[in-house]
Amino acid sequence: MNSGCVYILGTCDTKHAELYYIARLLRESDVTPRIVDISTREHAAPADVSARTVAGFHPGRQKAVFTGDRGRSIGAMAEALRLYLGARTDMLGVIAIGGSGGTALVAPAMQALPLGLPKLIVSTIASGNTAPYVGGTDIMMLYSVTDMEGLNRLSRIILCNAAHAMAGMVRMKCVPQPDPRPAIGLTMFGVTTPCVDRIVHQLSPQFDCLVFHATGTGGRAMERLADEGMIRGFVDVTLTEYCDLVAGGIFPCDTDRLGAVIRTKRPYIGSCGGLDMVNFGARATVPECYRGRIFVEHNPQITLMRTNADECAAMGRMIGQQLNQCMGEVRFFYPEGGFSILDRPGAPFYDPEADEAFYAALEHTVHQTPQRRLIRLPHAINDPVFADTLAHAFSDIFKENPDNAQHSPQ
């Protein structure tokens, strides 16, 4: 067993029974627990690490946390916790419990922890939209079913499962196998799977291909790994997250999409995958303002809406502005035959005029140079020749990046 401990996060003023229970279960599993109190008001329940100790890590010290204003105090304690956890050197894993406030408090700190470190939140809101709490990380969330107001016959079982899951992850720590291939990031949606599958097949002998689902958090996860130095290049086939940013869909990127490409100057291949669709939930959730648009029900929980020419032009400008800031090798490929499985002759989203509105805005915005080029191809995005062209182009520009010279495929 490695030396170190599992940090247990929670508010001892209201959740002390649950926190002590988890600590006992971890101890019985031969894992050392450390309860960290993140309460924002005074109380008598003891902890291994007091709330005042955690609050002392805030740049404004304890007075910035214990304000008497619940909202301000939670936000300040979240920042203090992030800094406190970031300074730990004996952390084997982190388990947290909370309701809406407690979950919002612990999530930013846990998101900042390294990928691969076991992290689990038992929460009353884990059955809803967990994207704000998980982000682009590997946080696990377990729905508590009952509210956490002391222990009962059900909460004991759920917290026991959570504690044993954490103990198992810590005791059976995964040791990654060495891989000499440089890691690269690719983005995929169901409607671009044939393209990405073929690219992965082409590049896998030379590269460790990490494919990310383009659901907003997928793009953020890919770029986080690039910022951390794990990913050494991009084959960003599927930029559909921009659609949801522009039109209010459920899988939007944020305004820092392509930010890691800008910051790292890693070689970048981009394309238009999924720019023909906005993602909404079940059909009844589609905003009234979009009545009369073209829709496809992807499944009972996801409804797709065809982007129009104005939305495509807006995305062309946004993506173009980001590409202009990229100082590494950039190739952006435009598939004249369509952006997805649904955007081809005879398919419901086929709209060449809307697609061309994207390219016209992109071409008008991008300052092309020998290192930053737009390339039109007379193929649909899922045509084999299109995928092959992207794979070959990435191999070429990867070799041209001086930082990648030692990793270049032969």
Quick synopsis:
This protein is an alpha/beta fold. The chain has 14 helices and 14 strands. It has helices at 12-28, 51-55, 62-65, 70-86, 100-111, 131-134, 153-171, 193-203, 217-227, 241-247, 259-264, 309-323, 352-365, 384-400; strands spanning 5-10, 33-37, 91-98, 119-123, 140-143, 183-188, 208-213, 231-238, 268-273, 277-280, 295-299, 302-306, 330-335, 372-377.
- Rough outline: elongated
Annotation field: number of helices: 14
Q: Gap between N and C termini, in Å? A: 42 Å
Helix content: 25-40%
Q: Going across the biggest sheet, name each strand in turn.
A: 7-6-8-9-13-14
Low-confidence spans: none
Structural class: alpha/beta
Strand content: 15-25%
* Helix and strand element order: EHEHHHEHEHEHEHEHEHHEEEEHEHEH
Extended strand count: 14
Estimated radius of gyration: 24 Å
Largest sheet: 6 strands, parallel
Mean pLDDT: 93
Comma- or semicolon-separated keywords:
five-stranded parallel sheet, 39% helix, 410 residues, six-stranded parallel sheet, 14 helices, alpha/beta, single chain, 14 strands
Task: Explain what you see.
The chain has 410 residues and is of the alpha/beta class. The protein is 39% helix and 20% strand. It has a 6-stranded parallel beta sheet with strand order 7-6-8-9-13-14, with helices on both faces. The chain has a 5-stranded parallel beta sheet with strand order 2-1-3-4-5, sandwiched between helices. A 3-stranded antiparallel beta sheet has the order 10-12-11. Helix 1 (12-28) crosses helix 7 (153-171), helix 4 packs parallel to helix 5 (100-111) and helix 10 (241-247) packs across helix 12 (309-323). The longest helix is centred in the middle third of the chain and has 19 residues, at 153-171. It is elongated and about 70 Å long. The mean pLDDT is 93.
